[in-house]
Every structure is written in structure tokens, then in C-alpha cells.
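Protein modeling request. Please complete all fields; requests missing the sequence field cannot be processed.
Requester role: graduate student
Desired output: 3D structure, C-alpha cell encoding
Chains: 1
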Amino acid sequence: MKLTFLGATHEVTGSCFLLEACGKQILIDCGMEQGKDVFENQEIPIPSAAIDAVLLTHAHMDHSGNLPKLYAEGFRGEIHATGATTALCDLMLQDSAHIQMFEAEWKNRKRKRTGEAPFVPVYTMDDALAVIKYFVSHTYNEKFTLFNGIEIRFIDVGHLLGSSSIEIWITEEGTTKKIVFSGDIGNLNQPLIKDPQYITEADYVVMESTYGDRSHGPTPDYIKELSRIIQSTFDRGGNVIIPSFAVGRTQILLYFLRKIKQEHMVTGHGEFKVYVDSPLAVEATEIFNENIAGYFDKESMDLIKQGINPISFPGLKTAVTAEQSKAINFDDDCKVIISASGMCDAGRIRHHLKHNLWREDSTILFVGYQSVGTLGRIILDGAPMVKLFGEEIQVNAEIVKLEGMSGHADREGLIRWITSFHKKPEKVFVVHGDEHVIDLYTTSLNEDYGFDAIAPFNGAIYDLKLNELVDEGKLVEIQGKKEPKKTVSSAFERLVSAGKRLMVVIQHNEGGTNKDLAKFMGQINSLCDKWDR
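Delivered output (533 residues):
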């Protein structure tokens, strides 16, 4: 009964934890690193083929983005998540694969000219399409048996459509322990989705700490502030450009904009246009519309009962094709453009920034977290000039952040969540936060609230039965520019993964009949004879 911390330790992204219990190896989340990579990542210490199952808190890439890579390396177990998370992952993992393959093609055109070895994407579209077949969907509050001795329940945590905390009960050698993974804890009073549901009992808790050092303050009047920004920008003759996460944040913005239009809070500009320029955001919005029951909050359900779509309105236009996207910048009318990616590091938003950053009449409105090192953070921090598509662009536009708009709970929300436990857990593991935030929040839990809390390092191993740290791991800061791993033939990498999977299959057949094992051995030897060169 051991827990190994593999990702999001002293960093915000790349959530991944390995739980060893009842003879099974289970991953909780399998996230991708995003933004600036500060610390060396811990590799999964066992072959991917040896992982028996994955439990997924939600669909964001920093929690789910490496699942196709896991499949490419030989994983063939079930991936358990809520139904909405499954639907969103089907969309988002394909989008991630598309981006990686596009970037690989772009890089390889340069590498071919310089004679460098080809760049190989982390995974392909085939991997993304294949891994989704292993998803098993669950409803909130449904308790089910994962393996003998291991029971699971997903609890609504109010961060994203389908997001959850995960309760795990483990019974091993007569001892039962309950461990809770918080996932990303949601902010209160978000449109569309429900507030976080609180859990009252656990022996161990793994909790996020993204905003563990700050308060969002009183809930702003987002609709009033957004309408003010639109009004002032349109009155100048400019556009409002909103870099937005395609899944979650875009749909909340559409909810706000519907109310602004319904109540005529922007005047003098008619039925102004709102463009959603992101194929991912358009498809994600459809998934929101299809996953209402059990996920939407009461206010949204009341609108639906009245025949009102909470995230649609007159003047809403979508751009799916590249031609539709390009045409937006030839539209001279004042408009709102919502486009991905939310941190401006990729996607169509970069084209809209190129066309609007230099304009004094336009506004760039940030509505989400901007990681250190991303283009969004650079602009928000006041850079006078940025480089886009090889061209230096002067930043003349008004740069605004819609304060307090976050899908993450602030410090007060995190404290509210952890103090809902009726009895203090034996240990609280603090993860998913910048290094200084994690340290501050962990200290506060210990000194101000009387918890036994630690902030584990990469590779730390904790024995849940004995309640002791087996290996404290280490935090290795990347010095200078991180050198990319040597690229080799993608086909050869997959062959190596297949070999590792074969070893796992061999181990699974221990105890089989002599006849079956002899047949299996003969097949392996025949294969080796054919390919041994």
C-alpha cells in the first residue's frame, strides 16, 4: 500500500501519482507538463504495460494529456472517469495529438534542411483515438469495485464539467485505508457547473494548492466589468480579444455574454458580433450542451426548462476552418473574439494578437491563469514588444485582466475544502502549486490549522499502511536550457514498448498450465528466430 509522487510536486502542471495496492499498480491522473518546466520530471518507475488502471480527475491536459503516450508505451488497462470527462477527453486528446503532429511536421522541415535527426511527436492521432476506447464512464457518487479490495467513488469538485475528487478505499491484509485525491478544487458560484462537494472522512489526502497563497477577494460582478470593457473598447472603434481555454472558460464567457446581450448592457453597437475561433472550443461547447443532467447547476437548469440555451445567443458566430478564422480579421466591425490557447503559446489566438496588439483602440482581455514563461504572461507583465510569426509586434493595445475569474478555489476555498473533514487525516500531501505557494500553504496547514501536512518531492514514496515516508525523493532544478531527449525512430520506440509489454504479459501468465506456457514459449521463440539478425 504505497503512493509514489511523479508529477505536480512543487509545480502546477503534470499531475501524476502511482498507487500500489492489493497487487495492482494504479495511476491517478497522467498529465502533461505545460508552461515553463522548472524541475526535472520523475518518470513512471514501471513499464506502462504493467499499469493496471488509471483514475482520472478531469479532462484538462495537465491531468490527462499523457494518456495517449501511456497507450503508445503498452498500457492496455481501463481508464475510469466521469461521463463528461470521457467525452471531453475524446475531443481534447485528439486536439493535443493534432497539435503535436503539426509541430513535428513544422520542425522536421527545418531539420531536414540542416541534416538533423527527425523530431518525433510524443504520440500520434492513432494513439489518441485508441486510448479513448479504454475509458469507462461513471456517474458522480457511484461507488464501484475497481479490483478486489479497492473501491472507488467520484465526487463533484466544481472545477470543470465532469471534474471530480476521487475517494479510494483500500483493504489489504485486514487493514483498510481511505485516500482522497482532491483533483483541482473549483471556485464557488461559477456559472453552469455546481459548487464543490465536500468530503468528510479520509486517512490520507492529496490536495492541490494552486492559489494557496492568495484570495480572489469578494466575487466580482464579472458581467458588469465585462460589459464595461466591451463598451469602452467598441466606443474607441477596437476589438476585444480574449485568449481563453477552449474547455470551461470559453463556455463561462458565453454564459456572461448571453446575459450582457439579453439585458442590453452594451449600447450603441447593435447586436454586436462574438466570434468563437477555436474548433476545440466549438466542439467542447457542443459537449457542454449534451452533458446537462447531473452536471449543470440549478440556475442553468432553470434556464433550460424555460427553453433558453445558457451559452448561446444572437450574434454568436463560430469559426472552424482556417478560412473562416482568417476572414474574422477582414471584418471591420467592432467585435469580441474568443480564441485559444488561453496562455497564447499556440493556436489561432496568436493570429488575432498579431492583428490587434499594435492597435491602440483594441483590448486584450485575459480571463485565466498565465504560467511563467508563456506569451500570455509576458504580455500581461507589460512587455512593450513581442515576437509573433517571426515579426516584432509593438504592444499598444489596452491589456486587461478580469480579476478573480478562476476555475480554481482561492486560499479560503482550499481551507474550506480541507477543514470539511470531520477528523483530521493522518497526513495531507500538498501538490499542484508553484514552489513558494506549496511551501507557504503547507506551513499554514501545519501551524494555523493543526494538520500533519507535507509537500512531497518528485519520486517521493509513502507507505500508507505504516504512515511513513519510504523515500523522500528529490527536487532537481533544470539548469539552463533543457536539452531535448535524443530522437530515435518512432517505430523502434514502439517496438521497445511492445517488448516491455510482452514481459508483463509473460508475468501475468505465471501459474498457467504447462501446455499453455509451452505453446506461448514456442510462439515467442518462433518470432525471435524470424527477427534475430
